[in-house]
Amino acid sequence: MRFRSWKKLWKKAVTPMKLKTGIYWGAGCGGCDVAVLDVHEKILLVAEKMELLFWPIAMDFKYEDVEKMEDGEFDIVMYNGAIRNSENEEIAKLLRKKSKTMVALGACAHLGGLIAMANFHTRESLLNRVYLETESTDNPDSVIPAEKWKKGEEELELPAFHSTVKTLDQVVDVDYYIPGCPPVPDQIVSALVQVWEGKLPGKGSVIGAGERTLCDECPREKEEKSITEFKRPVDAIPEPEKCLLEQGFLCLGPVTREGCGARCIKTNVPCRGCYGPLEEVNDQGLRMLSALASVLEPKEEKAIDELISQLPDPLRTFYRFSAAASILRRKKV
Amino acid sequence: MTFEPKIVGFLCNWCSYTGADLAGTSRIKYSPNIRSIRVMCSGRIEPTFIVKALYEGADGVLIAGCHPGDCHYQEGNYKALRRYRMLRMILPGFGIEPERVRLEWVAASEGERFANVVDEFTDQIRDLGPLKVRDSLERILSEDAIPELEEAMEESGDANEA
Question: Are the CB atoms for A332 and A164 separated by under 8 Å?
Fold first, then answer.
């Protein structure tokens, strides 16, 4: 989908009342919240149409304020970040109860995102690595955070660190998804306009993105693909006019939804797949594996193995954003 | 009870399925553990099919296609080979032994070979033991359950019913 002119859309958007809105972050980096602010002067229009009742990153609200609200009082809640710990999950369930429309904002809420790569490890190995083993760790008493800590009268509690990173829709019912890491600000606005106009598609749809692959949107020239070697952007500078995949740079364009405006491609960086898979595709990583294998040049086992051994970390490259939403979801233990 | 592996076989229409058919009409005995699925070409077998089969309860997946150079569609079996080699590379990341997936070339005239491949693969999977990837996922997800939250949900559920 090309960006529609927001001004035109804006004129059409007539909502008599302000929409009661909540924005929350689970396990994320805050980039999605910043993307909401990055709509620049359009933020004024957002303020005109929406009444923000809950937005921890930008304003001072407490969970109690939400608990006191009526069920279904929020017209729309945008949840960004994945479900990493018990707090993320509890607040997701609370907000679901208090909202009419729940939107998963950004790749983490949509597919698990970057942090879902932790699913290729166990909880124990993650905690050990972070608190005991890293080269920069100084932890002489080998302390690992506990969920409960008591000293005298005082007791402190931390949220439980889950074994598995989950997508938002793996813990609550989700109405719409706005993909991206982070979502393109203009696409957030166009999705919000859809909300104001009351022109939302069927429940469970991806909004603020297109229906085709990124390759359809990509301005580069594409010819017959036959890959004989793999390169990384640190090894060579890609030719700016030619398909990155044809040049041997691993680009997830063929399995990624359009809608970002090919922002990485235009800066000569291969697509990493943050807009997620197309409709009907239930495993983006395997789909990329399949697509990539079909355009490799070698036909003999030895030559194939030699070529694919050049791939830097294929597992996490294919599943950079979608590990939690894959069929297998995590490493078997 | 001894473990009897469940094996899903994706067989190409032109060579391997015909080969399996020949094994049958020649009355060759082989392990009944395989559930054969006919596809038009080994190049049609998406990695998603294989992983879905493993997730849904298969202990092993056999892919069989025409010998190199013999593909009815010229290139399909090469695509299958490349997908297979790459899938084997990433399966350990999901904690699954790559030996649970196997690619073999079986021609239409190779009924005997088909039977041998199935027997051998069945023994291999029997040695590896059951996969149970879904059970393992459900078990580890249950560790993440929040007891108070479940209780609260149940209570509110009861209230709604009343």
Answer: no
